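In response to the reviewer comment on reproducibility (Comment 2.3), we provide here a single inverse folding case reported in full, input and output, so that an independent group could reproduce the run without further information from us. The structure tokens appear first.
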């Protein structure tokens, strides 16, 4: 039996992935290689739905790819590629946009959030059609499952609707993907505001820990993380959200249960707990940072890996597009 295929994507819009990305998704991308056929994409077409500086986008795309390899995504096992290297994404996105209702697209809450932030008049049409491009990403590869966080659920629902609608109207063309519910993922909160998710767009620099961050800065941020006026290291989502978040990070990285950590740090106060947590984070990220730097130092080799990934991706994508063109009624090109 063939393994089920997963597809997922991440935007190259930061100089580093952060702890929330890592524990909330990327670590599962690595694990899924054991059980699934895995296709992972650096989604630069999605990145330009908000303004990007060209040199920065180029650099960040390489940094994103290098980090994926550095965390353990194996280019011989997974297909890892950059979205703009496979023109079929944009092509399928156009076709899908023609079967998407304007009202349907208007209901996407992430667009409402992002366009409100950008200022309604500056938001681009590309930002509006972002979820349709995301549907194209997924459907091009016949993905069975899509590991995503809660915030992407609506986009995945749209993808399923579009796949079903297309299949119904034009004949069986797409695999209808299901969500891959990320079990055992730790949802990581902002270190300065544990009420919000750690996120590049919402968090302050003090609230985020980058995967590529230097150890001194990691230690400083953890020592300064918001806790509470008590002193006991104990998980309590409502009364002690800061400490609970730190316990969750510790548990996820050290592979030790929260209950066992509570026991170990009973009576030791926040200082010791934070100091030791900082070392756990530093130890987890230092090798990733080293490997990322090594990969970035050899740009030609990194670009070659991405070229190989794009070739493998394209092999699948062109087959899907042939079915799409045929079923829609486009004349074969000669
Ligand atoms: N929208 C996703 C995010 O912001 C990124 C993404 C783009 C994606 N295309 C995808 C995720 C396809 C899963 C599948 O996280």
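Designed residues, in position order:
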């Amino acid at each position: 039996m063939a393994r089920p295929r997963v597809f997922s994507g991440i935007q190259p819009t930061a100089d580093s992935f952060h702890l929330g990305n890592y524990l909330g998704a990327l670590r599962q991308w690595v694990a899924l290689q054991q059980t699934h056929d895995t296709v992972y994409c650096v989604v630069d077409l999605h990145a330009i739905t908000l303004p990007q500086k060209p040199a920065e986008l180029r650099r960040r795309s390489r940094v994103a790819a290098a980090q994926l390899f550095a965390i353990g995504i194996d280019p011989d096992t997974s297909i890892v590629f950059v979205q703009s290297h496979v023109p079929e994404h944009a092509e399928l996105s156009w076709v899908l946009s023609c079967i998407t209702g304007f009202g349907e697209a208007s209901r996407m809450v992430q667009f409402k959030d992002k366009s409100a932030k950008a200022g309604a008049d500056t938001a681009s049409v590309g930002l509006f059609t972002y979820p349709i491009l995301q549907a194209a990403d997924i459907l091009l590869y016949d993905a069975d499952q899509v590991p995503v966080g809660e915030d992407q659920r609506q986009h995945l629902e749209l993808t399923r609707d579009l796949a079903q609608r297309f299949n119904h109207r034009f004949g069986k063309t797409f695999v209808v993907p299901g969500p891959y519910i990320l079990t055992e993922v730790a949802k990581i909160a902002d270190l300065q505001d544990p009420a919000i998710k750690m996120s590049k767009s919402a968090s302050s620099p003090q609230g985020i820990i980058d995967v590529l961050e230097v150890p001194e800065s990691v230690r400083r941020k953890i020592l300064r993380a918001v806790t509470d006026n008590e002193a006991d290291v104990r998980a309590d989502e409502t009364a002690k959200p800061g400490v609970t978040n730190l316990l969750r990070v510790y548990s996820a990285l050290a592979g030790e249960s929260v209950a066992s950590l509570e026991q170990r740090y009973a009576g030791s106060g926040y200082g010791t707990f934070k100091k030791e947590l900082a070392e756990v984070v530093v130890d987890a990220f230092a090798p990733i940072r080293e490997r990322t730097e090594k990969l970035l130092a050899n740009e030609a080799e990194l670009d070659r890996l991405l070229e190989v990934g794009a070739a493998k991706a394209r092999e699948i994508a062109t087959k899907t597009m042939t079915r799409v063109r045929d079923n829609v009624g486009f004349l074969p090109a000669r």
